[in-house]
Amino acid sequence: MERVILIKYGELTTKKGNRNFFVNLLYKSILNKLSGYNVKISKDISRMYIEFDEKDLEQILKRVNNIFGIHEYLVAYKIKTDEEEIKNNVLEIVKKEKFKTFKVETKRSYKEFPIKSQDFSRQLGGLILKNIGDIKVDVHNPDLLVNVEIREKYTYIYTNYYYGLGGYPNNTLGKAMLMLSGGIDSPVAAYLAMKRGVHIEALYFEAIPHTSINARNKVIELCKKLSVYTSSIKLHIVPFTELQEMIYKEADQDYVITIMRRMMYRITERMAKRRKCLSIVNGESIGQVASQTLTSMNVINSVTNMPVIRPVACLDKLEIMEIARKIDTYDISILPYEDCCTVFVPKHPVINPKLNICEEIESRFDYKDLINNALKNIKTITISEKEKSEFDELL
User: Fold this and answer.
1) What is the pLDDT of residue 19?
2) Is residue 392 scored above 80 in pLDDT?
3) Domain ranges of the chain
4) Residue 391 confidence (pLDDT) above 50
């Protein structure tokens, strides 16, 4: 019996007239993630089918598990749509399983098949009971659920399925610039944005010698973890030392973080427009730190008109940490290497900053020229899940 991986779309099936657009993007995403494997992928309006070499099955399933846009996936036996063929093969498939209770569920999308779904389920159930001893039917909570999907040419039989990541395929809804620190929150924000079909490029602010090479490498490792959900991620490294030192020199101490964040937003907006991004994404969570009170976020956000997406804004820290563990970024994020956002934190940062005070502080130095210099000297690394990343430019 031939086996295939069967993909179920889930949310994509709600898109009505735009369904083909989403399905075609999912097809391209799967094709890209499975490049290098001997696979053949076909699709219809409600399912996608992957033919594969048995020796590659485990690795292929690992890759499929990391593709956004998939609601469920499973390994199914592909049988010719014929009553006797189906009955014979169902029995062979079930004999391989260990169970005490079972249920057969038939879906008959090919309506010309002569037996109705419920009737065929009863026939198959009777066949199994007759040929396998010491078992019984349980329609509510069976040990084994035997699924039979009858289509025009082929019937698909399976007993297990896995939940996919859901969401939309990569790059369905355009590109955004991620403000990526080495902390827990921003990688989680990136993951959640990518789940909604947003392609991510990342911007990291470093202030060597105040921040270390280890802090940069930490961010690169975070990008590698995130890249398993896409083909690759461009990481733009911003030299922030000169600007950060000037802020620390000129700003009132309680306003240092507020002014620094306003500068970061200005740079991120400029870089986002340069890279044709449609929005900014960051890991801000309401009330988590002084710069993330609603008052602070309002004053900081006032320097840009670009939409800012905050996927973790309404999650508490424990919820964010749970997702970080799930996507395997948590252990990297807690490594003790400080970034720009933590290295110069004052003892008592302002939690309700005033816009007029920020503007007065910023008038004390030529921040526009410093921003231009930072943008001029940005370095970019292209990071993929492969062992060796491709580097556009090394620092």
Assistant:
1) 85
2) no
3) 2-163, 175-383
4) no
Edge-to-edge strands of the sheet including 199-206?
A: 308-309, 279-281, 175-179, 199-206, 233-239, 379-383
Give per-residue pLDDT as tens, 321-369: 999 999 999 999 999 887 777 766 777 889 999 999 999 999 999 999 9
Residue in 129, 127, 160, 131 with CA at minimum distance from that of residue 146: 160
Euclidean distance between CA atoms 248 and 240, whole angstroms:
12
Residue 327: closest CA among 165, 207, 213, 87 = 165
Neighbouring CB atoms inside 10 A of 349's CB total: 17
Q: Please, are residues 52 and 36 in contact by the beta-carbon 8 Å criterion?
A: no
In whole angstroms, give the CA distance from residue 4 to residue 50.
Answer: 6
Q: Which of 390, 381, 383, 392 is nearest to 236 (CA)?
A: 381
- DSSP helix/strand/coil, 96: coil
Cis peptide before 169 (omega within 30 of 0): no
d(CA 188, CA 149): 37
Closest CA to 191 of 109, 353, 68: 68
Pick the CATH number of 175-383 from 3.40.50.620, 3.40.50.300, 3.40.50.970, 3.10.20.600: 3.40.50.620
Three-state SS across 8-71? ECHHHHHCHHHHHHHHHHHHHHHHHHCCCCCCEEEECCCEEEEECCHHHHHHHHHHHCCCCCCC
- Mind listing the pLDDT tens digit for each residue in 60-105? 999 999 999 999 999 999 999 999 999 999 999 999 999 999 999 9
Cα–Cα distances in angstroms (integers) from residue 266 to residues 260, 294, 351, in the given order: 10, 19, 21
Give me the pLDDT at residue 386, please.
65
pTM of the model: 0.90
Per-residue model confidence (pLDDT) at position 62: 95
CA distance 138 to 377: 67
Domain 2-163 maps to which CATH number in 2.40.10.220, 3.90.25.10, 3.10.300.10, 3.30.2130.30? 3.30.2130.30
Burial (Cβ within 10 Å: 0-12, 13-18, ≥19) of residue 184: buried
Per-state percent for the chain, helix, strand, coil, to nearest 5: 40, 20, 35
